[in-house]
Amino acid sequence: MWLVRPALPDDVNQILEIAGTAGTEAARLSSTLPRQQAALAEKIEHSLTSLAGKMTAGDRPQRFLFVLEDTVTGKVHGTAGIDARAGNGQPFYNYRRDALIHASHELGISSRVEVLYPSHALTDHTLLCSFSITPELRNTDAFELLSRARILFIASHRRWFSAHAVVEIQGVQCPDGSVPFWNSLGRHFFDMDFETADQHSGTLSKTFIAELMPPNPVYVTLLSDAAQAALGKPHELTVPNFELLHREGFQAGCYLDIFDAGPVLEARTDALHTLVTSQSRTLHGTTEDGGDTCLICAGDGAGFRCTLARVADTLEGPVKVSVGIWEVLGKTAGDEVRVAPC
User: What PANTHER family does the entry give (predicted)?
Assistant: First the structure.
């Protein structure tokens, strides 16, 4: 059985295995997940503090990290995160895609030129992040559970999150690991490769972006053909997640990732499909194996658990699930759970 739960300090080594080593395909698809033990341990500790609701006015905004666990083996197979406020108290940088009209009345010439404007307009939106999963589980129920469990967590803790949510989707990369957009633009301003810059973005202060990236608009026509073709396109391995998020209600807008020009998806939090279709119900038991497969979650803060289960409705409103699901969720008959259809 698959279970999504908060990450714990003992999960560090397994999460590092999922993140992979520098230069691997897995690493390039989990760029916001620290691949250094100390940084990852600090991220988990911040998550646990956030889950406990112990944040004060002077603290950094809440950040949460969850793992996908096989309850039979206890092995961790994936991670998914939420930053309650994108930027975590600092500017959250993107490029805004727009256009300028250049015209000469004397020559009778008018041309539309695409431009990228540095922006931090999405700062403080809720950010879904740190999604990674072992390759064999892509396009499975476990993949969908891991991604959508975050939205059930938001639904169960709505006061912690903003009115709008965003997701950065990893952009185009070549088979050799090179990044066309970075090669055409970013590398001219940073004395580091793409992977190093992206890791800094995930683990360090974002001030280096403001200090090193050009503050002026970037004319798209000055970029390489490969970089222009990559604008707003997802990495081929992120397409399943891209499509799942579209089904949730996220849409690509005018914003692009500042390093690889991947699409930034936006949605109104209260309109997310899983949140809208989820219902708070009372838990009852059954020995039958009937009903529809649903996402079911329970627990507040660090006690949050989410899994897939066959759920049978009753005329009175409670839902019936097997006692084995009770144990996985840490709940019993009469407790409150939240259910969303698959």
Answer: ARGININE N-SUCCINYLTRANSFERASE, N-SUCCINYLARGININE DIHYDROLASE
CATH topology of domain 278-341: Barwin-like endoglucanases (2.40.40)
- CA–CA dist 341, 240 (Å, integer): 19
Is 340 within 8 Å of 295 (Cβ atoms)?
yes
Segments making up each domain of the chain, as ranges: 2-100+115-274, 278-341
The contacts of residue 113 (CB under 8 Å, 6+ apart) are 99, 100, 101, 102, 219, 220, 221
Which residues make Cβ contacts (< 8 Å) with residue 63, sequence separation at least 6? 43, 46, 47, 50, 81, 82, 83, 84, 88
Question: How high is the mean pLDDT of the chain?
Answer: 88
Catalytic residue among 77, 120, 235, 273: 235
For the cut 60, the answer to whether the pLDDT of residue 30 exceeds it is: no
Q: Please check whether residue 213 is in contact with residue 118, taking contact to mean a CB–CB distance below 8 angstroms.
A: yes
Q: Is the pLDDT of residue 194 over 90?
A: no
Instruction: Report the pLDDT value the prediction gives residue 60, as an integer from 0 to 100.
Output: 84
User: pTM of the predicted model, to two decimals?
Assistant: 0.91
- What's the one-letter identity of residue 317? G
List of residues 6+ apart from 26 with CB closer than 8 A:
18, 19, 20, 132, 135
Tell the CATH topology of 2-100+115-274.
Aminopeptidase (3.40.630)
Taking every pair of Cα atoms in the chain, the longest distance, rounded to a whole number of angstroms, is 83
Q: What 3-state class would DSSP assign to 105? A: coil
Kindly list the distances between the CA atom of residue 308 and the CA atoms of 1, 75, 245, 341, in Å, as whole numbers in the listed order.
8, 17, 19, 10
Q: What share of the chain is helix, strand, coil (3-state, %, to 5)?
A: 35, 30, 35
| pLDDT-based confidence at residue 58 (cuts at 50, 70, 90) | low
Residues 6+ apart with CB under 8 A from 230: 171, 172, 180, 181, 260, 261
Q: How far apart are CA 272 and CA 58, in angstroms?
A: 30
pLDDT at 26 over 60: no
